[in-house]
UniProtKB/TrEMBL annotation, chain A:
Residues 124-407 form the NADH:quinone oxidoreductase/Mrp antiporter transmembrane domain. It is a multi-pass membrane protein. The chain crosses the membrane at residues 26-42, 78-98, 105-124, 130-149, 161-183, 265-289, 296-314, 320-344, 365-384, 404-426, 447-470, 490-514, 565-583, 595-613, 620-640, 646-665, 685-703, 739-757. Residues 678-760 form the MrpA C-terminal/MbhE domain. Residues 60-107 form the NADH-Ubiquinone oxidoreductase (complex I) chain 5 N-terminal domain. InterPro entries: CPA3_Na-H_Antiporter_A, MrpA_C/MbhD, MrpA_C/MbhE, ND/Mrp_TM, Proton_antipo_N. This is Monovalent cation/H+ antiporter subunit A. GO terms for molecular function: antiporter activity. It is found in: Cell membrane; Membrane.
Automatic annotation (TrEMBL), chain B:
It is found in: Cell membrane. The keyword Cell membrane applies. The chain crosses the membrane at residues 12-32, 38-61, 73-92, 112-136. It holds the Pfam family MnhB. GO terms for cellular component: plasma membrane. InterPro entries: CPA3_antiporter_subunitB, MnhB. This is Na+/H+ antiporter subunit B. Keywords: Cell membrane, Membrane, Transmembrane, Transmembrane helix. Belongs to the CPA3 antiporters (TC 2.A.63) subunit B family. Residues 8-129 form the Na+/H+ antiporter MnhB subunit-related protein domain.
Length: 785, 143
């Protein structure tokens, strides 16, 4: 399982290369990956259904009990199949949609990386594994929304999506850490097996709230829903895949995963069902404001996500059956509808449904697909969506708390959704033919196959729900969500009951709303001024506030003068460390002088160098004398038999001098020297710093609070790490993780320096006449040592 | 102003650079047992190229580097570092656990720490060269 996920990332990394080899067929080649994964998941299905779950574990940080483990149970199987099956079609579809696009390689890379991250997310068993993949989906989603990076709107939307989901991710991490701490385990599987009840734990409330914040931001629940419609700036295959079928369901997945352990309390039921219901109605209500077909679909996705959250909140067995059914149904019809929207956009050149009409004759197959998928969205029998909606209404009617509210909201949302479905099914395809920017014609096969299969699936599963083992799949998924065995058996006909009556009534009212849509929309337009004060305005306000705050504190703290930074840092250091040494260790300090003659000479050289550096009137002179100090330190290292440190110090010193010399040429002469008062102040700070370091060394020398670890390293270096050079063994073996981190820091610093230099370089070329300003800027040239 | 053009420096640089590079590889390979290692070796190699850079200028050095951009070296270094993390995983051990293989004929100890060290080497070399060359390039164009 882990190799499969890893394969995805390797494939993503190599996709630019594949692109060179296969050209336009790359999408098809890449689609093999999710297709094979889907087949593998299908092959595991019988095992999962009989055993309940499959667990695979690899050690990661054993000392903290953290491992990279993967879990395949009914729930992850259902999600995994959605990701891989829809992913296959989306990749094929993208090949047609982005045919000839210059940046298609970048698109493939991000999309396949997303696919692997999403698979990792739903297969993860470790809490932290899940978190890592969770963040990866946020990042890949950001890259995909901002795919048209020259478009400012796309960049803004990408940033908005990233901020909202990553802020939620932060809360999620806090929640997961609380969960891991409270349960004492970092594995979902182990937590599920535990006797103790986490609901009784004293940290239950903060834990749940943090986890819910993570899930709600990811799954665009009210009041965080605003990022999802903005995310429609992404190319349509991305909207179909990430922003309806998979990524936005990650939050829902997390809630479902946590339900057996954390669900069922008054807090859980209250928050989830009410927030879910509000999201459901908000999404459906906002949908009919829009004529942009992708926004219509995005808001109806919000409605569906709200419904799923609400069902998890209700928590009855009925609700869970409804949950898994609605989940499957929604992914199928919404994926198909988004792809249809992409076809319409691609073939007509507009996204506005009111600017299309009579396309039925030009695009007959698309019209049929749109019709079938929209019927499923509307919940008309015999489509699979009907079963989902029926169960959802039934679950709302049977809710233990807030049942009247939930039923009312569900009914209103159903009416609005039916109107949306009708708009998409009829508006572009029937009525008067309208001139569109492009002359419409039927889409290529690669773009039709995906939506066609998904729409057909909605029909087949509706007519015969037991086909293709859907019953068994949903049973095992629902079992995983409930935490105990549950039998799901679906059928189109449950007899005449309240839910059916509501369904029929909503169909009528929804169709009426569709007929009056144009009038209703102009009435709704009057509400626009009030709508501006929604959560999105809050987000904008918050962002602007953060920017203003950073500007203020940057002006205050970061005045651009290196000398001020150093002064502040040193004073703080002296105050904190000096205080601690004097208060806690002063009586223990002892000084024994046992100095050799040559040591005195080296030390004397250093003092001379330091003195000369402070009084020198030229930069080069100061630099050279600092260099002398550096080389003397290297000498000391070598005298005390640390050749590695000595060599390193020598080389670093040489490189520093070279780099500084290169920078020095760009600096003007000392323009204003310090005043006497400043010199006294600086001298005092420097002297105190010297005394502090002296005290620090004495402290380190005379106080041993722990057994030094160096002996362990000396003893084990050769037998365990096969190396006699301990310094090197520490760097590349004992503490290789630290070194790895340092390598990244070094690389980032170098890239930062290169970027800044190149950037200034470019500026100079464009405005080469500004002599005085240019000089002033070069004084402030930041230097990263 | 940096490109010197003195005969002594030019001649010395021409002969010293390959020697320094060989020395850096020597330091890299012996690092696990004797003083040396990727960081030091990387700095020595960077020193070699910097000397050449001072003697012959940026464009000549770029030719010597044969189209290898220092920034690519940084990437290669990080990639090698990350690659050395993985083998332990396949052996069912925690990440970064050192793996050792002996290549029989030449009796050479190959290991993930060595791969890691080569990664450090490239990262250091690339970082320093990237910064120095960027600084030199800015210099070149300004009066």
């Amino acid at each position: 399982m882990q190799f499969a996920v890893l394969m995805g990332f390797v494939l993503a990394a190599s996709s630019p290369m594949l692109n060179r080899w296969f050209g336009e067929r790359t999408s098809l080649v890449l689609a093999l990956f999710p297709a094979l994964m889907a087949i593998w998941l299908f092959s595991q299905a019988p095992i999962v259904m009989s055993e309940g779950s499959l667990l695979l574990e690899w050690s990661w940080v054993p000392s903290l009990g953290i491992s990279l483990s993967f879990l395949l149970d009914g729930l992850s199987l259902l999600f995994g199949l959605l990701i891989t099956v829809i992913g296959t079609f989306v990749l094929i579809y993208a090949g047609g949609y982005l045919k000839g696009h210059t940046d298609i390689a970048r698109f493939h890379l991000a999309l396949v990386a997303f696919m692997a991250s999403m698979l990792g997310l739903v297969l993860a068993d470790g809490l932290l594994t899940l978190f890592v993949f969770w963040e990866l989906t946020s990042i890949t989603s950001y890259l995909l929304i901002g795919f048209n990076h020259t478009d400012m709107e796309a960049r803004k939307s990408a940033r908005q999506g990233l901020f909202v989901t990553v802020a939620g991710g932060l809360a999620l991490m806090a929640g997961l850490v609380l969960l891991g701490g409270a349960s004492g385990s970092w594995s979902f599987y182990e937590i599920g097996q535990m006797e103790s009840d986490l609901r009784e734990h004293s940290l239950y409330t903060p834990m749940l709230i943090c986890l819910l914040l993570g899930a709600f931001t990811k799954s665009a629940q009210f009041p965080f829903h605003f990022w999802l419609p903005s995310a429609m700036a992404a190319p349509t295959p991305v909207s179909a895949y990430l922003h309806s079928a998979t990524m936005v369901k990650a939050g829902i997945y997390l809630l479902a995963r946590l339900h057996p352990e954390l669900g069922g309390t008054a807090l859980w039921i209250g928050i989830l069902s009410v927030v879910g219901a509000i999201t459901m109605l908000t999404g459906a209500f906002l949908a009919i404001h829009h004529t942009n077909i992708k926004k219509l679909l995005a808001y109806s996705t919000i409605m569906a996500l709200g419904t799923l959250t609400m069902l998890l909140g209700i928590g009855s067995e009925y609700a869970m059956t409804a949950f898994v059914t609605f989940l499957l149904a929604h992914s199928m019809y919404k994926g198909a509808l988004f792809m249809v929207a992409g076809i319409l956009d691609h073939e007509t050149g507009t996204k506005d449904v009111t600017a299309m009409g009579g396309l039925r004759s030009a695009m007959p197959i698309t019209a049929v697909i749109a019709f079938v998928a929209a019927l499923s969205l509307a919940g008309v029998p015999p489509l699979f969506g009907f079963i989902g909606k029926e169960l959802m209404l039934e679950a709302a009617l049977g809710a233990e708390r807030f049942d009247m509210l939930l039923v009312l909201f569900a009914f209103l949302a159903a009416i609005l959704t039916i109107a949306v479905a009708a708009i998409i099914a009829f508006r572009p395809f029937y009525g008067r033919q309208i001139e569109t920017p492009k002359t419409p014609h039927e889409a290529p096969f690669s773009m039709l196959i995906g939506p066609a299969v998904l729409a057909l699936g909605s029909l087949v599963l509706g007519l015969a729900p037991a086909m293709l083992g859907a019953d068994a799949l949903l049973t095992s998924a629902a079992t995983a969500v409930v935490g105990e065995p549950l039998q799901v058996s679906l059928s189109l006909w449950y007899g005449i009951n309240m839910a059916l009556i509501m369904s029929i009534a909503s169909l009528g009212l929804g169709f009426l709303l569709f007929k009056r849509w144009d009038g209703v929309r102009s009435k709704l337009a009057m509400l626009a001024p009030a709508m501006r004060h929604g959560p999105e305005a809050g987000y904008e306000g918050l962002m602007n506030g953060i920017v203003r705050f950073s500007e203020w504190q940057t002006r205050l703290l970061q005045n651009g003068y290196m000398r001020n930074y150093i002064l502040v840092m040193l004073v703080v250091l002296i105050a904190l460390i000096g205080n601690s040494i004097l208060v806690r260790h002063a009586p223990q300090l002892a000084l024994t002088l046992d100095v050799r003659f040559h040591e005195v000479i080296v030390a004397g050289t250093m003092v001379m160098g330091a003195l000369f550096a402070t009084i020198s009137r030229s930069r080069l002179g100061a630099l050279v004398s600092v260099g002398i100090m550096g080389f003397s330190i290297a000498l000391i290292f070598i005298l005390f038999s640390a050749p590695d440190l000595g060599i390193t110090q020598l080389l670093v010193e040489t490189m520093t001098v070279i780099l500084l010399v290169l920078v020095l040429f760009r600096l003007p002469r000392f323009s204003n020297l310090s005043t006497t008062l400043e010199r006294i102040r600086d001298g005092a700070v420097a002297a105190m710093m010297g005394i502090l370091i002296f005290l620090l060394i004495m402290t380190a020398w005379s106080i041993n609070q722990f057994e030094p670890i160096s002996m362990y390293m000396v003893e084990n270096s050769a037998p365990l790490a096969y190396g006699r050079n301990i310094v090197n063994v520490i760097l590349v073996d004992y503490r290789a993780l630290d070194t790895l981190g340092e390598m990244f820091v070094l690389a980032l610093a170098a890239i930062g320096v290169i970027a800044m230099l190149k950037l200034r370089h470019g500026e100079n070329e464009s405005k080469s006449v500004e002599g005085e300003n240019g000089e002033k800027a070069s004084v402030k040239e930041p230097y990263d040592g | 102003m940096v490109k010197s053009g003195t005969i002594i420096l030019n001649t010395a640089a021409r002969f010293l650079m390959p020697l320094q590079l060989m020395f850096s590889i020597f330091l890299l390979l012996r690092g696990h047992d004797e003083p040396g290692g990727g960081f030091i070796a990387g700095l020595v190699a960077a020193g070699a190229f910097t000397l050449y850079l001072f003697a012959f200028g940026v464009s000549a050095t770029k030719e010597v580097l044969r189209m290898v951009d220092p920034r690519d070296l940084i990437g290669a270094g990080l990639l090698l570092g990350m690659i050395s993390v993985v083998p332990a995983w396949f052996m069912g051990q925690p990440f970064l656990t050192a793996q050792w293989w002996t290549i029989p004929v030449i009796d050479f100890k190959a290991s993930t720490p060595l791969i890691f060290d080569v990664g450090v080497y490239f990262a250091v070399l690339g970082s320093v060269m990237g910064m120095v060359m960027a600084l030199m390039e800015v210099d070149k164009d300004e009066p």
